[in-house]
Design a protein that fits this description.
Rossmann fold, 2 domains, seven-stranded parallel beta sheet
Length: 412
């Protein structure tokens, strides 16, 4: 089985090399790993005491971030190494101030893993949510370096729980402790003899709760939204925008719109403005008109959406007509109702928000219009949703502290 695993890694490496000649992401993936061993050895000192965090991509980083920052606060003298598998994580967070060293993770071969662990020699390793790399786990286990996984979710359809998954099940016994998000994951693991498990919950709740507490006051949006009902549409794609454009053309005076499209290049922004045909304002061009007179505010920058949701009466989360919705928690933490498209089932928090009545999934324009109109016309419904959202978040914060209390670093 090891032979087939190694062969698969080599084939993947070859495919990436070929794809890098015409695909930008593959090029970043390949070039970012060139010279990694040398750069790592030049950065790390022999006497550094390092805790290594590994995230597959940006989403996993956001789940690990509260724990990374809590580690930094609790253990100010340790160094933190952060690695990514995907360019979508590394390229966006390569300058993250919460880690001392940030690198791509070299592909999982015997020699890559051995050299990497030789250089880093971490006192503990923490994988976030996914990522089970055979050679890295073996190298860490051989050296008695504690290995943890946090914010993990396990499902019955994963290979670990199949009759033919014995080789993969062995991976799980390398972990000193597994912190999972839900009881179902714990029960699945118990069924295959993995019992060093704690249901800690999802660290993202800690992150979004902290973000909500620190949400910025944005003067431009204060003026735009004053005394108005506002729909905040975040991370929208064309199919999401079709629903929203049609609604505002039919109901131009029902409420105002703040929209943050996923693609913010000029051509897309101007095309979107033309489609609405209503008085609009770009966030980066605040002098185009008096904000209070605009019907639509387009967020054509990044980094502020989590604060923008505070101004919403309701939120629409994009991506549900594609591969899956974007972050619902950033909006729901403010106690506002959330609407999204039909592809949400892989996101536990979205399923739960629907179950408690704080979110709705829509499949077409009529469903979207009905859902939104019902919300903005019924103050009691808005207050009901605010109450259940507050309770929902209150019951789920604290995963970071649970994890920190149960990870014991050696010789500290």
């Amino acid at each position: 089985m090891v032979f087939l695993y190694n062969l698969g890694v080599r084939i993947y490496q070859l495919l990436v090399a070929v794809a890098s000649t015409f695909n930008g992401k593959a090029k970043l993936f390949r070039n970012g790993r060139k010279g990694c061993e040398l750069r790592l050895s030049e950065s790390v000192k022999k006497d550094d005491r390092i805790v290594w965090f590994h995230c597959a991509s940006l989403g996993e980083f956001e789940q690990g971030r509260p724990v990374i920052e809590a580690f930094r606060a609790k253990y100010p003298n340790i160094k933190i190494l952060l690695t990514f598998f995907s360019p979508s994580g590394y390229e966006i967070r390569k300058n993250y101030a919460g880690a001392d060293f940030i690198f791509y993770l070299p592909l999982d071969t015997y020699w890559n893993s051995k050299k990497f662990i030789d250089i880093v020699n971490p006192i503990a390793t923490i994988f976030v949510k996914y990522e089970f790399w055979y050679h890295y786990l073996n190298q860490l286990k051989k050296r008695n370096i504690p290995i943890y996984i946090i914010s993990a979710i396990f499902r019955a359809d994963q290979v670990f729980f199949k009759s033919y998954g014995g080789w993969y099940r062995k991976f799980l016994f390398n972990f000193q402790h597994l912190f999972v998000q839900n009881m179902n994951s714990k029960e699945l693991l118990a069924g295959i003899g993995v019992n060093n498990v704690t249901v800690a919950g999802d660290t993202r709740f800690d992150r979004v709760a902290a973000n909500a507490q620190a949400a910025k006051v944005i003067p431009l949006i204060e003026r735009f939204a004053a005394n108005s009902r506002v729909l905040v549409a975040g991370s929208t794609w064309p199919k999401d925008e079709d629903l929203i454009v049609e609604y505002f053309k039919a109901n131009p005076h029902n409420l105002k719109l703040i929209i943050a499209p996923h693609e913010i290049h000029d051509q897309n922004i101007e095309k979107l403005r033309e489609r609405f045909g209503l008085k609009s304002l770009r966030y980066t061009m605040p002098n185009e008109c008096e904000p209070s007179e605009a019907q639509i505010l387009i967020i054509d920058t990044i980094g502020i959406l989590s604060s923008v949701y505070r101004y919403g009466t309701a939120a629409y989360i994009g991506g549900g007509f594609g591969v899956g919705i974007h972050n619902t928690l950033e909006a729901a933490v403010f106690g506002i109702p959330v609407i999204f498209g039909p592809n949400y089932q892989r996101f536990q928090e979205a399923v739960e928000l629907i179950e408690i009545g704080a979110a709705q999934s829509v499949g077409d324009h009529d469903q979207f219009a009905n859902a939104l109109n019902q919300l903005i016309q019924t103050e009691s419904e808005l207050q009901r949703i605010k109450g259940i959202s507050v309770n929902y978040f209150s019951a789920r914060v604290g995963a970071t502290n649970t994890i920190l209390d149960n990870i014991h670093l050696p010789n500290l």
